[in-house]
Amino acid sequence: MLERAGVLQRPRCYPHPGALPPKYQFVNYYAPARPMERMAHFSPFSLNREPDTTIRIIAGDLNDCPNLAVDRKSVSPGPRPASHATHWRTLIGRIPYSVIDTIRYLHPHARQFSRPHRQKGHAHLLVSGTTSVDAPLSDHRPVSVTIACPSAESSTAVPSLPETSSQLFRVNTRVSADEAFAARIPFIINASRRSHPLDPLAAFEEAMARLKIASSDHARHLNRQFLTMKAALERRTHELEALPVLDDQRRAEWQDSVSMNKRLILERARQLRIRAHIPELSSEEPLSHTVHARLAGRRTTIKIDALRLADESISTDLVKCLEHIQTHFQSHHTPDDRDVAQVEDARSTLLDPVRSALPRSTKHSDSRFMRPMTQRHSKLLEEPFTADEFVEAIGKTDKGRSPGASGLPYEMYQSSPTVFAELIASTCNEAWTKGALPDSMTSGIVRLLKKPKPDADYTNLKYYRPITLRECSYKLMSKVLVARLNKVLPSVLPPSQHGFMPGRKASDAGSHLSLLLEQIRTLDLADSALLSLDQESAYDLVDHDWIISVFRAIGAPERFLGLLGVIYGSVSLRYIINGYLTGVVHMLCGLGQRDPVSCPIWNVCFQPYLDALVRRKIALDLCAVLLPTRATILTHLAFADDAIVLVSSPAALGLLAGLAVDWRLAVSRSWLVPPALVAGLGSVNQTETSLPTVIIMGILTLLAGALAFFCVSDVPAKAKWLTEDERAWLVWRKASDGSSVGEAEGLHVAQIKSAFTDYHCWVALFFYISILVPLYSVGLFAPTLINSFGKWTRAEVQLLTVPMYVFACSYVLISSVYADRYRTRFLFLLAAQILCLIGFTINIIPTAPVGVKFFGLFLCAAGAYGGVPSMISWLSTNLSGTTKRAVGTGLTLGIASLGGIVSSNVYRRVDAPNYLLGHGVLIATSVMGIISSCLYAFLLKRSNEAKDRWHAEQNALPEDQRKVFTVQELRDMGDRAPEFYYTI
Questions:
Q1: Which residues pair with 445 in a beta bridge?
Q2: What pTM value is reported for the model?
Q3: Which residues form the Reverse transcriptase domain (predicted)?
Q4: Region of 590 on the Ramachandran plot (φ > 0 left; ψ -120 to 50 alpha; else beta)
Q5: How many Å apart are CA 434 and CA 195, to the nearest integer?
Q6: Percentage of the chain lying above the pLDDT 90 cut
Q7: Over the range 440-454, which residues count as b (16 or more CB within 10 Å of their CB) and which as e?
Q8: First vs last Cα of the chain: how many Å apart?
Q9: CA distances (Å), 941 to each of 975, 981, 984, in order?
Q10: Is the per-residue pLDDT at 130 higher than 80?
């Protein structure tokens, strides 16, 4: 094969029994998913016709690709449906002679081989010869071709692909919900116990294995029932629909059949979502664009395209990547070599104060520091596990959680909680006694998720977050252990630790910090500062010996320490990379990610460091500066591994560095991240000096308002600061504004009613909203939208908004001048709304180039800001009467300003980076504005034409019959007066 490409040399023919001709065999053939890559991959295939040559193909994933659009769709252009095995048809079509047999590997849940090109099978001996061709990663699995032609005497192992994660599956939730299967669970577990009456660990492993097999068989049984029922319902539905007339009974039967068939389809879709690890959704809830985007992002976060190896080279070779990941994480979970004497000294320095502390029950116990546990709590931790504890833990589990390698989810345990509780309790107690957990409870599968950072280099493993999948039986044991620790830790740990502590919340820490800062304002602490402390990979690098030492220091019983040794003594992990598993990584240090017991254990391990902040005078002691009668005030707070400490001066940084060295020696090889300055509190005190400035500015504002009452005139005739000529001109201009008789000044109740009932205000409300909503959106979220185009700093993003606003300002000035010159508002308002429509339409297209999207923001800004002058002046010009104009513009502008609520909520963080919801809403408002503007212009034009017709009718009458209005009547009529023409 691939003889033309020079890849495979013709195999040598060795004599063998029966003098059979040479054979070709394909082993573990994996093909790419993308159509173009698939065509290029199969193009070099060339097998010359040889009468005595046959071929046998054994492939592992040739049409098992998760991308259904590639591997499951028909490729035949004719009306007759073709085979679904696209890869098989492509491959077999390249072979110039008949293929004797093509076999795919046996699926772990299938009872038979599948043969896409099934003919009579023959067993033939193959001559020797092996060639392997590796290609870069495909969409779903790496491409790997292995051609093996072994002879009868050959003992060389056939090369194979790395082990896949095909053993990872999840038992269908329908199985555990089925009453028939739930009734079988006690018999399966009891049979396993009878097989191993003296070995609970072996009985547990056998029970789990039997449950896995039984649940798989029952899932297939339920699937066959589903298909049979669905076929019967469809057949009966078709029979009823074929009848010419349906009576009431058959119509009801048809409705029931259709409804039942729909429920079956929705249930099938729900099960497929679970198998595809898609979040559970209501059966009536469609998958929105947002959900699709989140699912696409979720798939992207688990795919690794390439990795940077130890020699700094970037590789796409799967085997090298798997080896690199195994080596990296084995080194990550292995303690470094340290001087034993230095380690013991550092641990003694941190733990001696804990050992000498008084328990909480003692009168003079110091609540600021970690204290030993009481005798009652010590007895609680060494008691054997009970079935009631596991029943309670099973009742608190959530559905839909990912199980371990066995695939048995929490739903299985919830179907028979008492039976499983007794099994797990006896297993854990036996493991506690023997000092070793069952193998299934010590192993875990780890998936690497990408950390969403803007500058992340995803070829580097430090930008991935490991998530461990452990067996639900182990997690139930952890939950029982956490429930016990939650009764102990509140009396052991001081109030400074708020992370994952019962009865304590992060909001409590925020409130305390706010009160603390308020207290600092009253003190003379010019050099004080608030520092943030963190450490890299805190959970992953803590030594298991340190865990035992800390719990021994607080008085934990030896039996409980033995349980901790059992939990952390033999943990083994395997990492999933694009569907393939690495070798075993032994977890020699660190706490498990997503392990329920990791959080309380970390809180205990981290508390000696928090105590040292106070004991070594790093954290500010407010008791030294406040009256002794004041209660103790905490000056350091923690949430799990994150801490905030208040220090009095920069000298505390040197003490922090010394504490970091001791912490590294005693606990782990993880360095503390250099402290970050949250706030320099000396500047807080300086804000007190700005209080007079604030008071002065407030007084000046009040004076300006008071002076305005005397200096600002209501009407031009009363403006004393104008000259006589200026007053006369303004009075004449005001009198002739809009009509020949002007408008009345003062408050008129009739005009208030007219403003609420006039169509001008309510039609204008819509195009007001169409301008204000984009205006607020551009003003609030322009930096966010620009930041989604690429990776820039905050300062660069702010600078990139400057040209956009300059362009918008220029458009506002130019459009305002020409709108006044041509005495029209409609055309310029319409142009602004069209600009918004074009700009947001450009930005809603995900594939649009960055430069085009940036130009679209220019159009959005120009349209949003450019429409404001025309929008406001158009309505106010067409309302006559000062009272009506004031009420109408105020009413319309006030209601339209509520669009700011919409603007501030449509660009959500979950929609990044395309923001389809926000752009879609603004496109809709722009369309609404265009329609309402055109409608308003049409109504104004029709009113003007009606006034023209009235004047023509009056002119046709004799002068003595013409309608004549007094000046007061015309002024009372306002914009409805015949003399008043609307501006379009």
A1: 469, 574
A2: 0.58
A3: 452-652
A4: left
A5: 20
A6: 20
A7: bbbbbbbbbebeeee
A8: 79
A9: 14, 9, 7
A10: no
Beta strands in 247-392 (DSSP E): 307-308, 314-315
Q: Which residues contact 629 (CB under 8 A, 6 or more apart)?
A: none
CA distance 94 to 132: 19
Closest CA to 102 of 8, 160, 26: 26
Distances (CA, A) of 328 to 309, 582, 584, 611: 9, 11, 12, 33
Residues in the chain: 984
pLDDT reading at 188 higher than 70: yes
β-pairing, 572-577 vs 443-450, is parallel
Of 384, 409, 407, nearest to 397 by C-alpha is: 409
SS3 content of the chain, % helix, strand, coil (to 5): 55, 10, 35
Separation between Cα atoms, residue 662 and residue 78, nearest integer Å = 76
- Measured CA distances, 621 to 289, 306, 445, 635, 941 (Å): 54, 51, 46, 7, 78
- With a CB cutoff of 8 Å and minimum separation 6, the contacts of 961 are none
Q: Calculate the alpha carbon distances from 824 to 121, 816, 834, 837, 877 in Å.
A: 86, 10, 17, 21, 11
Per DSSP, the residues of 506-536 read HHHHHHHHHHHHHHHHTS--TT-EEEEEEET
Sign of the CA dihedral with 483 first, then 485, 487, and 493 last:
negative
Q: What is the dihedral of CA 808, 814, 818, 820, to 10 degrees?
A: 80
What is the rounded CA–CA span in Å between residue 976 and residue 561? Answer: 91
3-class DSSP assignment, residue 443: strand
**What pLDDT band is residue 1 in, cutting at 50, 70 and 90?**
very low
Our CA dihedral for 504, 506, 508, 510, rounded to 10 degrees, sits at 160
Q: What are 371's two structure tokens?
A: 């204290």
Give the tens place of pLDDT for each residue, 375-411. 999 999 999 999 999 999 999 998 878 888 888 899 9
Task: Give every CB contact of residue 788 below 8 A, 6+ residues apart in sequence.
Answer: 912, 913, 914, 915
pLDDT at 581: 83
Summarize pLDDT for 239-286 with one digit per residue, the tens: 888 888 888 888 888 888 888 888 887 777 666 665 555 554 444 444
Whether the CB-CB separation of 54 and 100 falls below 8 Å is answered with: yes
Q: Which of 171, 168, 95 is nearest to 576 (CA)?
A: 168
DSSP codes, 778-794: HHHHHHHHHHHHS---H
Q: CA angle, corner 775, sides to 771 and 781, nearest 5?
A: 145
- Check residue 189 and give its pLDDT: 93
3-state secondary structure of 572: strand
In the numeric block, the tokens 């009823």 are attached to: 240
Give the bridge partners for 23, in sequence order.
Answer: 54
497: DSSP letter: B
> Taking Cα atoms as reference points, which of 972, 984, 971, 959 lies closest to residue 740?
971
| Tokens (6 digits) for 798 | 């702010």
Q: How far apart are CA 824 and CA 257, in angstroms?
A: 64
Residues 535, 541: Cα–Cα separation, whole Å = 10
Residue located via tokens 């990492």: 575
pLDDT at position 556 is 94
Q: Are 895 and 863 in contact (CB under 8 A)?
A: no
- Read off the tokens for 629: 């009668």
Q: Residues 739-750: what's their mean pLDDT? A: 60
How is residue 592 written in tokens? Answer: 């498990």
pLDDT, position 300: 56
Q: Which residues contact 259 (CB under 8 A, 6 or more apart)?
A: none
- Classified as helix, coil or strand, 446 is strand
Joined together, the tokens standing for residue 918 give 């926000």
Cβ neighbours, 10 Å, residue 83: 14
- With beta carbons less than 8 A apart as the criterion, state whether 888 and 763 touch: no
Lowest mean pLDDT among 198-202, 649-653, 964-968: 964-968
**What are residue 376's phi and psi, to 5 degrees?**
-65, -40
